[in-house]
Amino acid sequence: MGRRKLEDDDDNNNSKEFKSKNLQAERRRRQKLSDRLLTLRSLVPIITNMNKATIIDDAITYIQELQKTSQVLSEQLLEMEGSSEESVMPMKLEIDVAQHDMKKCGIKEEVKVSNIDGNKFLIKIIVEKKRGCFTQLIEAMNYLGFELSETNVTTFSGAMLFSSCVHGKYGDTLMVEHIEELLSEMMRSMKTSSQSAIELGNTN
Amino acid sequence: MKVYEESGCFDPHSLTDCQELMGLPGATPTNCHNSLEDTLNVSSYNHHHHEDASAALDMEPHQHYLLDNTTNNNSHMIPYLTQDLPYDQSHWESFNVVPSSSSPEAAAAAAAAGAYTPTPDLLGLFHLPRCSFLPNPSISFETTPGSPSVVYDPLFHLNLPPQPPVFRELLQSLPHGYTVPADDKDAAGIGGLYHDGDNGIIQFTRDISMAGRAKDRDKAGKTTKHFATERERRVHLNDKYQALRTMVPSPTKNDRASIVGDAIDYIKELLGTVRELQLLVDKKRCGQDRSKRLKTEDAASAADAGDVEFKSLGDPDQCYNTSLRSSWLQRKSKDSEVDVRIVDDEVTIKLVQRKKINCLLFVSRLLDELQLDLLHVAGGNIGDYYSFLFNTKIYEGSSVYACAIANKLIDVVDRQYAAAPPTSSTSL
């Protein structure tokens, strides 16, 4: 390659002292590039010549081809999803199963708030697991002006345990009982709203 | 029009006369000169002749406007040309013609140009800096095989802003597209009249000394294949690297090795995505076929229960697609990082974002949308960042795939991040 020749000439002509340090680094750099090009070459099922320029071109073509294929497949998938009727059933089944499990294990719904140092609280909530309940919980937290610094959520036996260390964003400190009350109320409203949704679904 | 006039470009009309001149292989330079001056001195040109010329040139319609301005340009050109009347061979070398990215045969033209001595001076007088080459051979003026072929690019006068190198252009500029010219030594020696990528105006005789040096070196180094100039080849190669870089979703550094590395990773990711999608489509099709079959069987014979079972077991269409789907993707942006792993129907998502907004809400909404059932969430504030881990399960019947999840997630998160007003840190 002409470029390599130029660089070698420069190295040789200009600085004999720095030649060794730079030459090795340059060699390593070129080695790294050629290794990677070899890997690229191995991945691409190319059809043309095997020189540096064509391998890049073929890689571009191959990537475009793969992107097109994946797009076609995903459209196909979307079509098929639109025509299938499987997804409607599970929701109702899940909910019934969840309630059943919770009662079996004796887990009760719960809201517990404890104060840690000023405006920080530890909130623990056990709620019946439903689709979208986590979102509602987070919305509730936002509404109360809480910033979640550590969050943990686990689900078991149809129940969801939400445990989080929060601190109030807004200045005024809330009392523990106050928070508990607010949260319980929110949960109740969540429950009723989701129940009415289920009823609507039933009638449909 | 203004551009054309002020730039002092060569006169397309006079080029047609050049064609006639070049048609005489034995023409002496002085003859050419005289005819040239005569041509240029023509103040009123023949419209009929002009039409022939344009037909011969096969120019685009808008170029006819330009040809109408020849009268003005003739007077413009004359003082320009008279300066260069005393010429010598060096002029020809200063007239460096190089093919643009889309013309293989121009290489032959450039190569042969150096060999043909009497005529080149004319073209040098024309100072064809605005010329470039076109793949359209109907515009080239070819006489004898050895004569220089100059192709006139009608669009160049307009000083159009440079188009980003389209991939097709790059393809055409591949070395294997160049033809072997008749005479090799001068071809390699001709330096670069080329298109400066920044402002669309060709730099004329950029590196004559460079050309001289290149000539000597290339004579020794290059074999049968010739590129019009080494610099041009490098520019093209760099353009290709940049084109490759634009295709990758999250490019990192801008040097060649990492571009190739990113491309390798992206190709592997694409292969995985295609495989995953194919699997999903197959599974879905299987499921649809099975449900269809069950329906028809139920409708057909409800009485004979045993038979139905037997049929479904031995059915050749039944596909036992027992392969597990597994895929892994990562997406990085300036402030966020997303990692999505899917094994069969369980999706594990890791999200790291610079602390600014609490993204939990948006992520959770997105997960609901994507029909992912949240099993476990853990995370919080670590130093400057929020880091979360989501374990989810895909609801039965949904066929989301890894790439979609990752892309949507990083999109939502980035958008929210950008939308949120910059807040001063009030962390406790």
TrEMBL record, chain A:
Translocase among keywords: no
Subcellular location: Nucleus
Keywords: DNA-binding, Nucleus, Transcription, Transcription regulation
Signal peptide: none
GO cellular component: nucleus
Transcription regulation recorded as keyword: yes
Segments of this protein annotated with the region Disordered: 1-27
UniProt-listed SUPFAM superfamilies: HLH, helix-loop-helix DNA-binding domain
Ranges of residues in domain BHLH: 17-66
GO molecular function: DNA-binding transcription factor activity; protein dimerization activity; sequence-specific DNA binding
Compositional bias (Basic and acidic residues): 1-26
PANTHER family, per the entry: TRANSCRIPTION FACTOR DYT1, TRANSCRIPTION FACTOR SCREAM2-RELATED
Descriptive protein name: BHLH domain-containing protein
Natural source organism: Gossypium mustelinum
From TrEMBL, chain B:
GO biological process: anther wall tapetum development; regulation of DNA-templated transcription
Predominant localisation class: nucleus
GO molecular function: protein dimerization activity
BHLH domain ranges (all copies): 221-270
Domain of life: Eukaryota
Keyword terms: Nucleus, Transcription, Transcription regulation
Cellular localisation: Nucleus
Protein name, as recorded: BHLH domain-containing protein
Organism: Gossypium darwinii
